[in-house]
UniProtKB/TrEMBL annotation:
Residues annotated as transmembrane: none
Species this protein is from: Podospora pseudocomata
GED domain location: 647-735
InterPro entries (UniProt xref): Dynamin, Dynamin_GTPase, Dynamin_N, Dynamin_stalk, G_DYNAMIN_dom, GED_dom, P-loop_NTPase
Gene3D superfamilies in the cross-refs: P-loop containing nucleotide triphosphate hydrolases
Protein's name in the database: Interferon-induced GTP-binding protein Mx2
Lineage of producing organism: Eukaryota, Fungi, Dikarya, Ascomycota, Pezizomycotina
């Protein structure tokens, strides 16, 4: 095949702008932002490939069987050395397998000449790679492909020109060859290219077919409303036999028929059975009538090429500022996305530093929270649940009060059964309205509201929200008020279990009275400990999501520390059980001097109240100067039955002991179970995820937690490439 000679002088205007566009294209910027380009569209066999051949010198197959089955992008670029690169860009919907198969293809040629020689063989291979069905008799494969064949021709004499050849539009499917789906596929491919307003549409119209029937002009009009980027190219003028037909074509070129803003051009390409003569000899016909009358600027491939160069140059000029802006925006988006991925975690060291940094942040927040240094981090403003110190102080107070009010099974005699000292006010039965919680808990609130919020955040916790704590925390949170009639009960107890001792009760009676009186202690103290555990657990979860926003990483991290965290909660509840057993299962005894004092006081109070009653009786009977005789004082204790006397002693001893033990127990639960096991000790659940823990991780475990999934790695690599490309692009566009 002889070389098709093409007009190759520097026909293009603004070559520096076009060069820039090409440099951008080279850096794959076209994938991210549309770049000015030419696309050849038209019906099947309208002469698109032949036109491209005239424009670029590449001999496209013109065989009807081998009509264009995929988009071909031809880029010509000026370069000091001559070379041709051929690659396939996989279509957007390709499978990974297909993708790697077509991407593995790389064809090359030493020069345009070399390419021309190899071209049929290259196309064979490309078609095979894409899986194109080569002939109507062949089985398998597809008729059309969304893959793009990319041919890049570089050389010192090449123009900066990128043209895309797309399959021709057709309307009727052919039995056994093309389907309705193919029609749609091709149409979509075409519109994909012409939709973009940086695309110049070369609408190819064969002269031997009525131009009114050319759907492509309607399609182009649809996407290029103002007609600013549609150029009509009339082909096959040599196939118009009659003079009247030629005349019609001429008037179209003169833009007198179906008008286009950019007008029409007429070119003659090589016919199927025509020899290899150059364009000059073919275009001789334009010197004859009626073509002679046409403006030379509208006739022939040379004039067309000049016009295309101008158009591209104008478009480049017009689009550059916008392109610069687009690229700038895209760059900052990509950088943001990259920053969102955090630092790279490829190596062991990178992973350790990364995780260690997260652990450090976690511990810092924990420390600040325990010390109530809430100004330390804005996170505290956003969530009340992070304020551990405040929540725990409130919870502890609440526990202490509830214990005092409700923990005894029966009210002691000297107690006022409606202790309203602490009664938590007015709002006790009001339901806490969650909506009422302020977004910013630091905003000043009426004291009652603050109390409600604290109450909601500490008492109204739902164990169902902590399924992981199942089996660790209590399932009972409420207790009844104490019962009355303690003296009846004590008397009964004594009568039922007394031995033969003289006027005294046994240790056994005392012990069983004690056990019953303290029988609600486990419930209340377990409820308190459980609430404290839920608050700590919620703190850990919330804080982890702050220091580690990546949810996959967070989940893995949690699954690694979970066991140990739960173990430490169990230690706390275990310690509570220990304290309970110490208090309740060992016979009541104390060294506390307070015990004797209160018991004696109770005894004295009893005598005093008896005397007081006698005095009041005397006063009522005998007027102002009533007196109580020694005899009366003596009888105040002597007249009691033995049972009553012992019962009173038992009550007073129990009451005094209860008082001492309750204070001791409440304090112990707070300091030893909560403070030491849950909050401040070095073995609390809050101290599982530490830098030391990270340092102690084995390489494999570390990689399992902090290593990146292959998709993240790929994403990171893609972003890095994209950012590099866009930065380059910015540089190219800046001068
Ligand atoms: P495509 O399907 O639009 O790419 O059309 P082709 O470029 O493959 O052309 C279809 C047929 O028309 C081929 O046989 C070409 O040789 C022929 N052809 C294209 N342009 C001309 C032309 O200007 N004159 C003549 N006589 N034949 C042409
Ligand atoms: Mg074609």
């Amino acid at each position: 095949m002889k070389q098709e000679n093409t007009p190759q002088d520097n026909l293009l205007a603004s070559p520096s702008l076009l060069r820039k566009i090409d440099q951008l294209r080279e850096r794959n910027i076209g994938q991210h932002v549309p770049l000015p380009q030419l696309v050849v569209v038209g019906d099947q066999s309208s002469g698109k490939s032949s036109l491209l051949e005239s424009l670029t010198g590449i001999p496209f197959p013109r065989d009807v069987e081998l009509c264009t089955r995929y988009a071909t992008q031809i880029t010509q670029r000026r370069d000091h050395s001559t070379h041709v690169n051929i690659t396939i860009i996989p279509g957007p919907n390709s499978s990974d397998e297909h993708k790697s198969h077509v991407e593995a293809y790389h064809g090359s040629a030493l020069s345009g000449e070399d390419l021309r020689a190899k071209f049929p063989a290259i196309l064979q291979e490309v078609n095979a790679r894409m899986g194109i069905r080569m002939s109507s008799s062949a089985k398998g494969g597809t008729v059309f492909s969304e893959d793009i064949l990319k041919i890049e021709i570089c050389g010192p004499k090449e123009d900066y020109l990128t043209v895309i050849d797309v399959p021709g539009i057709f309307r009727n499917s052919t039995e056994g060859v093309t389907t309705k789906q193919d029609i749609l596929l091709v149409r979509n491919m075409v519109t994909h290219y012409i939709r973009d307003n940086r695309t110049i549409i070369l609408a190819v119209l064969p002269c031997n077919i009525d131009i009114a029937n050319q759907e492509i002009l309607t399609l182009a009009e649809e996407y290029d409303k103002k007609g600013e980027r549609t150029l009509g190219i009339l082909t096959k003028p040599d196939l118009v036999p009659e003079a009247s037909g030629k005349d019609t074509i001429c008037s179209i070129v003169e833009n007198k028929r179906k008008q286009l803003t950019l007008g029409y051009y007429v070119v003659r390409s090589r016919g199927a059975d025509q020899d290899d003569s150059g364009y000059e000899s073919r275009e001789q016909m334009f010197n004859e009538d009626p073509w002679r009358r046409l403006d030379r600027g509208r006739v022939g491939v040379r004039a067309l090429k000049t016009k295309l160069g101008e158009l591209l140059g104008e478009m480049a000029k017009r689009e550059f500022p916008k392109l610069r802006k687009d690229i700038g925006e895209m760059l900052s988006r990509a950088e943001k996305e990259r920053d969102g991925l955090g630092p790279a975690r490829g190596t062991d060291t990178e992973q350790r530093i990364f995780l260690s940094h997260i652990a450090d942040k976690f511990q810092e927040l924990t420390k600040a929270s325990l010390e109530a240094r809430y100004h330390h981090d804005p996170a505290f403003e956003a969530s009340f649940h992070l304020k551990l110190a405040t929540l725990m102080a409130f919870l502890a107070e609440d526990f202490s009060r509830e214990f005092e009010e409700k923990a005894a099974f029966r009210y002691f005699e000297n107690e006022d059964s409606d202790t309203d000292d602490y009664d938590d006010d007015d709002d006790d039965d009001e339901v806490v309205d969650e909506d009422f919680l302020p977004m910013n808990p630091n905003q000043t609130l009426p004291a009652a509201n603050a109390k409600r919020i604290l109450r909601a955040a500490t008492r109204d916790l739902d164990p169902e929200e902590f399924p992981e704590l199942d089996g660790i925390i209590s399932d009972r949170y409420e207790v009844e008020d104490p019962e009355d009639d303690i003296m009846d009960w004590i008397t009964n107890l004594y009568v039922r279990s007394r031995g033969m001792e003289l006027g005294h009760y046994t240790n056994a009676v005392q012990a069983s009275a004690w056990r019953e009186q303290s029988s609600k202690w486990p419930i209340i103290s377990r409820a308190f400990t459980s609430r404290a555990i839920m608050i700590v657990q919620r703190f850990i979860t919330d804080t982890l999501s702050i220091v580690c926003p990546d949810s996959t990483l967070r989940d893995t991290l949690w699954s690694c520390i979970q066991e140990e965290v739960l173990e430490r909660y169990k230690k706390a509840t275990g310690f509570l059980e220990y304290l309970l057993s110490v208090e309740r299962e060992i016979n009541p005894y104390t060294l506390n001097k307070h015990f004797n004092r209160t018991r004696q006081e109770a005894h004295a109070d009893r005598a005093a109240s008896h005397i007081l009653a006698t005095l009041q009786e005397a006063e009522q009977a005998g007027g102002d100067n009533a007196t109580v005789t020694i005899g009366q004082v003596r009888s105040s204790t002597r007249d009691k039955s033995n049972i009553q006397d012992v019962a009173e002693q038992l009550h007073d001893g129990l009451s005094s002991y209860y008082d001492v033990a309750r204070k001791r127990f409440v304090d112990n639960v707070w300091t030893q179970v909560v403070q030491s096991h849950l909050l401040f000790g070095s073995n609390t659940p809050l101290r599982v995820f530490t830098q030391d823990w990270v340092i102690g991780l084995g390489a494999e475990q570390l990689d399992a937690i902090a290593g990146e999934s292959s998709s993240v790695k790929e994403q990171r690599a893609n972003l890095a490439r994209k950012i590099k490309d866009l930065k380059e692009a910015k540089k190219i566009l800046s001068f």
